[in-house]
Structure formats: structure tokens, C-alpha cells
Specification:
318 residues; alpha+beta; 7-stranded mixed beta barrel; extended; single chain; 7 helices
Length: 318
Amino acid sequence: MRSVWSGNLAFGLVSIPVKLGSAVSSHKISFRQIHLADQGRVRYQKTCELDEEVLTSSDIGRAFETPDDQLVEVTDADLQALPLPTAKTIEVSGFLDAASVDAMQLDTPYFLAPSSPTANKPYVLMREALARSGKAAVGKFAMRNSEHLALITARDDILLLQTLRWPDELNSAADAVPRGKVNISDNELHLADTLIQALGEADLSAYHDEYAAAVEALVTAKLEGAEPPAATGEGGGGKVVDLMSALQASVDQAKDSRGGDDGKHATVTELSSKGEGAAGKRPAKKAAAKKAAAKKTTARKTAAKKTAKKATPHRKAN
């Protein structure tokens, strides 16, 4: 594991020598800019805006710009000498339930590993203590010219450190809330629930980056002088005009892809026939009235037959 930070994890009076290693990798496709005329790569050069001199990395330093446009040079030695306890130590200051952390606040995950054999025992002790308590440790540490808030949890045989965004870095969601009043019927909610059931549980391990695979196939085809893979022609959905019909079509599609219906899913026709409020009671009243009328008619016919029998004289047998 390549270390991106090393220091100590302070757990009360226990100090554990640790190192951080990235817990994730990226398969993001990177493109180079080229000169179309001759395929030459485009390079960027850093120049001084005062004398337009082209600079190398050894010529470049850093400075803090004040509100009145003054530049204050800050060297690596200045930063290393900052009186911050978090520069080389992750100081655990409290614990909480990991599930209580806002998902918006979660940032980058890192593997937290013991950096020497002597760190193994206190490392395992903290891992087991966190696992038994079901809690996550919260602390701060400085890395790459920034101080980070960190969440430390027990994950299988390791400690996982996840940096958190500071609370004041989270933007308000007010601008994302739909404007105006939106009415959702019980039928629409019922069918949306049916769609969730029809789609079933998602298996994250089954997902893969189709864009990266498509770009790799395109590049391979170009290298081999072959025809690039053709697009399937399947686009995204258009404007939803009838929400109920769109939901029903989605349910049908989901049931087909999962091997048919289980007999539990309602259709738009079934939902619409139920009706809502007083409107849903009218069909029942009409049916009851028809039933009562039918009974009266049957009773009248029965009475008429009895009367006819009495009025007909019986013939004696010879």
C-alpha cells in the first residue's frame, strides 16, 4: 500500500503509529490535447506575468493573497512549523453512530494501517473496540496543506478512515426543492411502490463503467483500422405526458426483465377502477340497487306462477 500520510492515531493516552493509503482507484478516461495538423501534444508552460519568463518548478513558490491584493509568501518550512497538533497526529475527540452522519458530508475513503509491528496490538485493540461498540471515531488531521475532519470505522480486519466535509461546506438544499404545489394521487404512489418492488434489490457488484469500456473498444478499433462499434440507437425517455401510463409501462418492462409477473402488481386499469373518495362508492351503490330490483322482479314472477296454478282446473283421470 502506497502511503499518502503517516503519523499517529491518538486514542486517549494510547498512540498508534499509522499510515494512510488510498482505499479507492479511478478508471476515468483521460484524453490528451493534440495539434490536429500534426498530432503533436499540446503543452502548457507557466510564465511570469511581469517579465513573461518561462518558469520551472524550482522557480515557483506559493503566496497568500490578502483582500487588498497583497501577496505574502509562505514557504514549505513555514507550513511545517505551524503549531498544529493535527500535523502529525489524528486526535480522536469523540464517537458517534456512523449511520447518523449525513451522506452529503462523506468524502474520500482511506485505509488506515499500522506503520510498524509494534503498532499492531493497539491498532487491533481500537479496531475491536469500535466493532464491539458499533461506533465511529471522529478526529482531525492535517494533510496536503489542509486540515481534515475524519471518521474512523472498523471494517472487517482494518480501520477505515473517511474524510468528511466541514459542516459549513454543505450548501442548503432549498434551491433544489420543487416550486409550487404538487399533488400526488394515491394511485400514482401505489404504482410507484409497485415499480420499486418490480425492479427489486440492486446488486452494486453487477454494475460496471460502460463509458470506459466503450472508449477502450473505440481506441482498439482505430488502432486495428477496423470500423468503430455502432451506436445502438437507444436514447433516453422523452417528455412524460401521462404519468400513470409511464409508470405502468415501467412496471411491465421491469416484470419482463425479471422473468414475469408474480400476480401481486396492480395495473393502471385496476387502480383507476378503484376510484377515490365519493366517486369510488357510486359503483357499489348502483350494483346494490340493481340487485334489489332483480329480487323484486323474481318475487313478482314467483307469485304470478302460483296464482296461475290455482286458477287452472285439474282434470280427472278416466
